[in-house]
Amino acid sequence: MTSVLFDVPGPRARLRHRLYAVVGIAALLALIGFVVYRFAESGQFDGAKWSWLEYEYVQLELLDALGNTLRAFAAGAVLALVFGAVFAAGQLSDHRFVRVPSMAVVELFRAVPLVVLIFVFHYGIALGAPFYSVVLGLTLYNGSVLAEVFRAGVLSLPRGQREAAYALGMRKTQVMTLVLLPQAVRAMLPAIISQLVVLLKDSALGFLITYEELLYQARFLGGSFEFGRPLVPITIVVAAIYIAMCLLLTWLANTLEKRNRRNKKVIDTPAKPAEDAVMAAV
Amino acid sequence: MDVLLDNLDLYGPGFLNTVELFLISAVGSLVLGTILAMLRVSPVPVLRAAGAAYVTIVRNTPLTLVFFFFAFAFPLLEIVNAATFGGSASAYYFSAALAALILYTAAFVCEVVRSGINTVPVGQAEASRALGLTFGQMLGSVVLPQATRAVVPPMMSTMIALLKNTTIAAGFSVFQAGSISLNLSERGEDQLVGLLWVALFFVVLVIPMTLLQRSLEKRWSIAR
């Protein structure tokens, strides 16, 4: 490996590294051993705590809850992409009276915590079904972040692209929709998908306003005395489901990024603005 | 305005708790994140793999789920019990929120620190070694100063996200800014107005941080 911090190790350094490796493995094994011991000691490995997995109605309920999570995700993702595109265009507008309000909206929704946003819709305005509050919150927050991603993508394109389009006699809208946006979206696709991972994770906030998604179902099943309150097993299963879904999306983003790098048609934009936008969206 | 002034006894402690939650978990996650980053750039493959596994797993888990684990499932493992916190449930939930925030944010801090170290070209370290600098001198006067400049803006983004994430604790029995409105409704106050005050509080805190971050980014960016 090449690292700034280390030279290629010589014989003494290699010996030292081997020692670190042994200590590291011992520490890891001790940690895992402690976890397993605690699990066994508190009865988390008992068959009774896992029996719920065998019941068809429990499986169907979990599947139903997963469906609700995915519905909120899908609706939020589509709306956030639309919101992002509209407000990115607004921020890039030549007209001050469009640009300034767009920027204000984007900054505002990026600054307010998503939980507070969802509470405003659910408790403050009382939209009724929690689904609407969750989707609206996800849309406004992630849409604002996506607007910044789109904007960074358009701004990072070489000026010649815009100038050539104007020279061909295109109108402003045509320059944006036919020349700039397609290139920006393609270059920013990995960043956009990473933001969708954030959106998927944030859909779990629906739990706080009793939207019947995966985590809510986990709480319900985990509290059932019928199965001996299997909260720990259910948390593990639900975490595995979430991690699998997010990794799938991340894998998609990485694949697209690799394809972008190979494809000469995609203009190599500096990744920094997008990275910042994504990091901001933890 | 009335909602705010009439309920200062809710808003004051609420915002104070938010700031406390933020400061403690910021320090905690910076420490843990730096340790993880050290693991991830260490020359020992096992440690690198352990760091990478932690970051991959935690980054793909919803923060709400991490809170969920510490609030509901963790006590069942009987590692800690109520007596550890003097029998006080609220003290337990506060610590649970801290644990969730620190463990979650550390994964992001780790990635920021690691990418910061990676922005320093290998030639810089090689040149300093060729000049005869020791490892400590190389780190202290060549690599870290350059890495810090690259790290500060994204680290501020992470900390802003952490500040906003503290509100999730509202759903897990920790009294702070996010839970003010829930208590307001018990007093028969207008929840919408109450929540808008909370939102304003975060806007006032976050937007200056964003502006500071942008100006730092402009001032500190290094042409490479």
Give a verbal description of the structure.
Chain A is mainly alpha-helical. Chain A has a single domain (53-254), classed as MetI-like fold (Orthogonal Bundle), CATH 1.10.3720. Chain A is 76% helix and 0% strand. Chain A is built from 11 helices and no strands. The model of chain A is unreliable at 270-282 (pLDDT under 50). Chain B is mainly alpha-helical. Chain B has a single domain (8-220), classed as MetI-like fold (Orthogonal Bundle), CATH 1.10.3720.10. Chain B starts with a helix and ends with a helix. The model of chain B has no long low-confidence stretch (mean pLDDT 85). At the A-B interface, helix 1, helix 4, helix 5, helix 8 and helix 9 of A face helix 3, helix 4, helix 5, helix 6 and helix 7 of B. Chain B: It is a multi-pass membrane protein.
Helices and strands in order, then pairings?
The complex is a heterodimer of chains A (282) and B (224).
Chain A: H1 11-41, H2 47-50, H3 56-91, H4 96-111, H5 114-124, H6 130-155, H7 159-167, H8 172-202, H9 214-222, H10 231-262, H11 272-280
Helix pairs in contact in A: 3-4, 3-6, 3-8, 3-9, 4-6, 5-6, 6-8, 6-11, 7-8, 8-10, 8-11, 9-10
Chain B: H1 2-6, H2 8-41, H3 45-59, H4 63-73, H5 89-119, H6 122-130, H7 135-165, H8 180-186, H9 191-220
Helix pairs in contact in B: 2-3, 2-5, 3-5, 4-5, 5-7, 6-7, 7-9, 8-9
